[in-house]
């Protein structure tokens, strides 16, 4: 073999070529095109335009230029690379209200609408190329389209007095469910599913830590200003001399419900066939989520984990689960009845004694009072007829001052008993289909994920009775994700099982 000294001198630089980051950067097509006199002239001209624009129009010009520079690639990435868009959507759903509190002004909610529109556009463009409409078919897809169509039809409700509220309300009630089809079509691999779950737990842990910060360090200046901006806010969030915590979310209820759903997910995985070190991490996450949830003072969230565990014991019955259920039940009984001076724990205990609670009695009275109206209005009073939107668009109407409190009651009042039937049918279809898929799935890991999604959807239905659980970010987006994963996980398992099928006989070609 020839040594280096025998090689021609002009070949030595090739052998000593530096493969470092900056040399690779110089080899990129864009830099190669600009690394010449014409490229330098272009960059100088571009810098001059920026300088002139900022000097004439001020910092606004620079900010707009920066926004355009970032926005165009971002829009392209969301439309053409839907998995990238999914990650952006899931992250934005979690930090949406945090952005407004740190000083980012403007209609931030429009960002979510734009994201969902771009992802639906990407879905349509992909379908034109690949024609894979069969992936979007199924009982869940059918009932979701029926629900969306009914909500669209509500714009023509003849008895509504708050017609203008429809355009604001339908976004969170029905249109957000279109993201179900985005998730259903674009999540194809178990690796993508795992990444989404890790992202979700990471965001939940960040939210829990932020609640600990609010509890033990205090609110930020922006949060303090918000809490004292309206006496109505203080009346809802300052109870028994203690502020209810809302972490990075819009309100304590949304925060507590998301902590409960993350806890349910972790508990199901702890019971699954995963390495011990992962189960320890999941147990620590569950403890942090449940502790943080207590800071919210949301009593309705306290029953969600026990209710989900009851369904877990029914669907996954065995000796180990039975023992765990008995231990968990005994612990819960002790926790409910133990004497305490802690305001968070005391409020937790009242969730299991609703008949002794004045607010629960008031809600029951309101629900009894509105029953005749529901029975006499099959299509209800129209989307947005109650609560804040009702007071804004029809301040003198009968429904404007009615506090729905419950997601089911709001549907019955605004969409009528016909809308309530459609909604309950939709939820029944979710659970029935998810349970059927769970029993058909063979892979242990995928089976655990499927069971977790079923239990979370079940818990959301329970949560929707005392509060409105499905209309606020991030719950509405993540609920669509969890419903989509019922089918996605089943599809991934079926593909895996088909790959494992070995022909019973191989033709003898010898």
Spell out the key features of this protein:
2 domains, two-stranded antiparallel sheet, 70% helix, disordered N terminus
Quick overview of this protein structure:
The chain has 510 residues and is mainly α. The protein has helices at residues 12-15, 21-26, 29-34, 37-57, 59-80, 82-101, 109-130, 139-153, 166-173, 179-186, 190-216, 221-227, 231-237, 252-270, 276-296, 304-315, 319-337, 343-350, 358-376, 387-393, 407-440, 444-463, 475-500, and strands spanning 238-239, 242-243.
How would you portray this structure in words?
The protein has 510 residues and is mainly α. The protein has 2 domains: 28-125, no CATH class; 135-495, no CATH class. Helix content is 70%, strand content 1%. Strands 1-2 form a two-stranded antiparallel sheet. A hairpin with a 2-residue loop joins strand 1 and strand 2 (242-243). The longest helix has 34 residues, at 407-440. The radius of gyration is 28 Å and the shape is globular. The protein starts with 11 loop residues before the first helix and ends in a 10-residue tail after the last helix. Residues 1-19 have low confidence and may be disordered.
- The proportion of residues forming helix, as a percent range, comes to over 70%
- DSSP strand (E) fraction? under 5%
**Total beta-strand segments:** 2
Please tell me the total number of domains: 2
Helix count from the secondary structure assignment: 23
Oligomer: single chain
Radius of gyration: 28 Å
Q: What spatial order of strands do you see in the largest sheet?
A: 1-2
Outline:
globular
The secondary-structure class comes to mainly alpha
Average pLDDT taken over every residue: 83
Query: What is the H/E order?
Result: HHHHHHHHHHHHHEEHHHHHHHHHH
Distance separating the two termini: 47 Å
Major β-sheet profile: 2 strands, antiparallel
Low-confidence stretches: 1-19
């Amino acid at each position: 073999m020839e040594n280096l000294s025998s090689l021609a001198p002009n070949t030595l630089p090739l052998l000593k070529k530096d493969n470092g980051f900056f040399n690779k950067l110089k080899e990129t097509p864009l830099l190669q095109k600009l690394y010449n006199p014409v490229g330098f002239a272009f960059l100088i001209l571009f810098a001059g335009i920026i300088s002139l624009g900022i000097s004439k129009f001020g910092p606004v010009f620079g900010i707009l230029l920066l926004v355009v520079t970032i926005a165009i690639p971002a829009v392209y990435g969301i439309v053409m690379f839907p998995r990238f868009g999914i990650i952006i959507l899931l992250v934005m759903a979690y930090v949406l209200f945090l952005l407004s509190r740190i000083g980012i002004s403007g209609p931030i909610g429009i960002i979510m609408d734009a994201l969902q529109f771009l992802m639906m556009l990407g879905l349509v463009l992909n379908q034109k190329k690949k024609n894979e409409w069969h992936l979007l078919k199924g009982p869940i897809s059918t009932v979701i389209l029926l629900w969306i169509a009914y909500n669209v039809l509500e714009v023509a409700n003849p008895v509504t007095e708050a017609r203008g509220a429809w355009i604001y309300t339908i976004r969170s009630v029905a249109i957000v469910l279109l993201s179900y089809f985005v998730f259903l079509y674009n999540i194809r691999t178990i690796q993508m599913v795992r990444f989404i779950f890790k992202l979700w737990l990471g965001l939940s842990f960040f939210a829990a830590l932020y609640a600990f910060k609010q509890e033990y360090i205090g609110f930020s200046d922006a949060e303090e200003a918000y809490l004292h901006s309206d006496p109505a806010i203080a009346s809802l969030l300052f109870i028994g001399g203690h502020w209810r915590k809302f972490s990075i979310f819009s309100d304590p209820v949304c925060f507590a419900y998301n902590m409960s759903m993350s806890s349910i997910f972790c508990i199901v995985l702890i019971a699954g066939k995963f390495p011990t070190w992962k189960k320890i991490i999941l147990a620590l996450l569950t403890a942090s989520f449940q502790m943080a949830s207590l800071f919210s003072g949301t009593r309705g969230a306290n029953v969600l984990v026990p209710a989900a565990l009851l369904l877990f014991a029914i669907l996954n019955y065995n000796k180990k689960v039975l023992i765990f259920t008995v231990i968990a039940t005994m612990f819960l009984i002790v926790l409910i009845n133990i004497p305490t001076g802690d305001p968070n724990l005391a409020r937790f205990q009242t969730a299991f004694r609703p008949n002794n609670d004045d607010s629960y009695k008031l809600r029951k009275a309101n629900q009894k009072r509105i029953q005749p109206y529901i029975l006499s209005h099959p299509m209800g009073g129209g989307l947005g007829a109650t609560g804040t939107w009702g007071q804004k668009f029809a301040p003198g109407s009968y429904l404007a001052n009615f506090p729905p409190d419950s997601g089911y009651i709001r549907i019955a009042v605004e969409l009528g008993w016909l809308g309530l039937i459609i909604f309950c049918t939709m939820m029944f279809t979710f659970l029935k289909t998810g349970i059927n898929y769970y029993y058909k799935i063979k892979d242990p890991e995928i089976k655990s994920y499927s069971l977790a999604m079923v239990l979370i959807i079940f818990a959301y239905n329970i949560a929707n009775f005392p509060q409105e659980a499905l209309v606020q970010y991030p719950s509405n987006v993540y609920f669509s994700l969890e419903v989509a994963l019922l089918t996605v996980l089943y599809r991934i398992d079926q593909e895996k099982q088909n790959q494992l099928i070995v022909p019973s006989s191989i033709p003898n070609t010898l």
